[in-house]
Amino acid sequence: MKFVCGEVAIDDVNRFVSDIDTIEEMANVAIQVFDARYIVDRQHIERAVECADRARRRDNNIARERSVEILLYAAGRRQITDALDIGVSTGLNRIVVVITGDDETGAADSIESSVVDDLDTEVLGSYDPDLVQSYFDITASEIDTVSGDIESIVLERVALLAVER
C-alpha cells in the first residue's frame, strides 16, 4: 500500500477521475483519492482497505470496483453518492491518495508527476475535527467517552459498515 499526499487544483472532476482511472488500469492497482480534511490518519485508510478486501474475499462486497469499496469503508457509508462527499471537488484540494495492488510504486510515481501539483506528506492526518465530527455523526458524549479521541471513533465507524448489512 502506498500513499501520495499533497495539493491539486481540479478544474474538471470527471477528467481528473478519468486520469486516475488510466493510471489505475495501467498499473493494475486500486486507487482512491480522498479530501484530506476527512481522513483522520493513516490507520483510517489502512482499516478501510483491510475491511474492503475482507468483504471482497467473502464475496460480501457492496461495490463492484475495489477502489469504490475502499471509498465506502473509509466513509462508513453504504451509498456511493453519500461516500463521494469525502472525495475531491472542483477547486484546490488537499488530497490523500491510497494505492494498492500490483505496481503501487509505478502508480505512485505517475500520480506524483502528473496529478499532484504540490506534494506534502503533512496533509495526511491534518483533518478538520468539526467536519469529521459532523460527517461521521460523532456526538459530544461519544467524544467525552473516548477522551476526545475522534480517530478511534472514526475507525469504529469504518469497521461497523460490515456489520450494518
UniProtKB/TrEMBL annotation:
Species: Haloquadratum walsbyi J07HQW2
Q: What InterPro entries does the record tag this protein with?
A: CGI121/TPRKB (IPR013926), CGI121/TPRKB_sf (IPR036504), UCP022062 (IPR016799)
- What family does this belong to? Belongs to the CGI121/TPRKB family.
The protein, known as: KEOPS complex subunit Cgi121
Any matching Pfam family: CGI-121
